[in-house]
Queue: 2 jobs
Job 1
Amino acid sequence: MEIVYNVFAVLHFVGWAIVLGGYFVSLKSAALNKGVFHGAATAAVAGILMVGVAEMSGMWDDGGPSMMKIGIKLVIAVIIAVLAFVGVRQGDKISPALKHSIGGLTLVNIIVAVFV
């Protein structure tokens, strides 16, 4: 099960890399890169599956990470996915605040993952 967990971990990291990279690419254009939504959805689903596999297989017998941390990361990931969906649907009319909210929340999610 550790291999399955690691596969989901890689997908999770790749998803966030797509979100952050898509945000940076979108800074010079009026629209939001479509990959941002797909990356956020991939990261959220892979994160949920990582927690499920770890809990099911007993990988976290020592307690693992705080479920509050997992919950906060999940809420932020869902918010990012919704904002990205709305941003992609708006096309060239996306507000800079919405675009920067996606980038900022992505960085917050990374900081929570590393430091909390």
Note: The radius of gyration is 15 Å.
Job 2
Amino acid sequence: MSDLTTTVTRYLDIWNEADADKRAAAIAELFTADAPYIDPLAAVEGREGFAAVVAGARDQFKGLSFELHGTVDAHHNQARFQWGLVTEAGAEPIAIGFDVLVADEAGKIKAVYGFLDKVPAA
């Protein structure tokens, strides 16, 4: 099994990548072709679906970034972790989520299930 903490870091890096081509290349490298991404706001399958969700979030939250909060808890081929959406590194998050990532035996992400713990005020 691959190091899932590294996989989580690479996953969060995708959310923070401004260049769409670099983001697409990272998604192609890290995700299986048919991986679902499901959270309270989206349910998509495949790399293009996930790329569209990330692009939408980047448009909605310009200038903000996602960072890991706490440690990655992993066993077998799955990891759970909390992330925060911040205005600058180490700042109080305006949004907090909890994701569960499932990897295949080669270490590629084959599913992500997300939950929102704190959402920005309207």
Note: The chain has one domain: 4-118.
